[in-house]
Design a protein that fits this description.
Layout: H1 3-37, E1 38-42, E2 48-52, H2 62-70, E3 77-80, E4 84-90, E5 96-102, H3 112-121, E6 131-136, E7 141-146, H4 153-158, H5 169-189, E8 204-206, E9 212-214, H6 219-222, H7 243-248, H8 253-269, H9 276-280, H10 285-294, E10 308-310, H11 311-324, H12 335-349, E11 356-358, H13 363-373
Antiparallel strand pairs: 1-2, 2-6, 3-4, 4-5, 5-7, 6-7, 8-9, 10-11
Helix pairs in contact: 5-8, 5-12, 8-11, 11-12
Bound molecules: adenosine-5'-triphosphate.
GO molecular function, one term: ATP binding
Domain Protein kinase: 72-351
Protein name: Protein kinase domain-containing protein
Length: 379
Amino acid sequence: MAYVPVLVYYITLGCVAFVTTKIALIVFLYRRWQRKNQVFQESMSGGKMVMFRSQMMQYLTADVFLKKTLRLTNKDIIGSGGYGTVYRLNIDDTTFFAVKKLNRGSADRDRGFERELKAMGDIKHRNIVTLHGYYTAPHYNLLIYDLMRNGSLDTWLHGRWNDRKHLDWGSRYKIAVGAARGISYLHHDCIPHIIHRDIKSSNILLDRNMEARVSDFGLATLMEPDKTHVSTFVAGTFGYLAPEYFDTGRATAKGDVYSYGVVLLELLTGKRPMDEAFLEEGTKLVTWVKAVVNKEREEYAIDSGLGCCPLAEVKGVFCIALKCLESDPSNRPTMAEVLKMLEQIKLDKLLPDSPDIDTKTSDHLLINIASTAIGHELY
Ligand SMILES: Nc1ncnc2c1ncn2[C@@H]1O[C@H](COP(=O)(O)OP(=O)(O)OP(=O)(O)O)[C@@H](O)[C@H]1O
């Protein structure tokens, strides 16, 4: 009987030793993983540089990177938006990055800011712009992204005449599918799930193969946009915001689906969501397209710059866009469903023959619609 307390003692000791070793092992592995994934470097100007380790970054030291980054000037600017200015960073003849300088520094931020950035750095997907690292300083922050050679979808569709380039139907369809895949990944495959909150054509960037990459995810949550930036309202951009957002102020995955529907309409019609012509007539792109599609006259709304395109596919994408734009969020599909429907359109095309439309021959109709019919009698 005297053996029992001794036995209990040894069993307890064994359990405690086992649990302690496990915890120590987990801590050790976590620390090693952290060291492997990040390179910390203090800068000369009191900031902190963090680079996430990846294949692309393995030959770069944080030191070289930081020196080049801090030497960026106005002539390196490639764009600007509500959150700050974007620069092109050339490391050598073959390695380039895009550096986004956020207007505010880390002085007014809590530690959650860096935690969010690290979480953003973990996300790797072929339809999402990779965040390679960041630099935090008291008065500004820098985010280091992949450089997207072909700029934004917004510039391709609505840039000044000399910036605007031709996007045929094949390219537009591929962009639609790529962007849907990227957003679907954020919504369904990331743990925790991520709501983008600012889906729009200027946040869909195009790589050298014209593959769509979703950018700026997480930024809307990370920082309140610059108050001077008129197109941005709390989080998100006018023209892309789902109607319920104005009532609730809550960003949801279905709100992203709505914004994605607006991007689909831009791809189909070539028009901006808040085109001046619409505003003058007291309407907007979504309302106008809904009216056109209700009358089964989609061909009148198709971008005249599209050239020859398969009408069945185009109509299919109009139909998906309108599902995304349902006023009641619960009637909208999820992004995974949107992606499936888009892919199905090509599969269906392999079955029966679908008629093609040459939008060039109906140019005069499109011009009529755009210039006179918006908001009034459509036809
Ligand atoms: N990774 C990148 N590679 C290449 N160009 C980029 C990259 N990120 C941004 N840009 C360019 O810089 C422009 C400004 O980007 P930014 O994200 O700061 O603002 P935005 O998306 O246009 O507007 P907002 O800040 O209101 O969301 C983009 O339109 C794009 O042309």
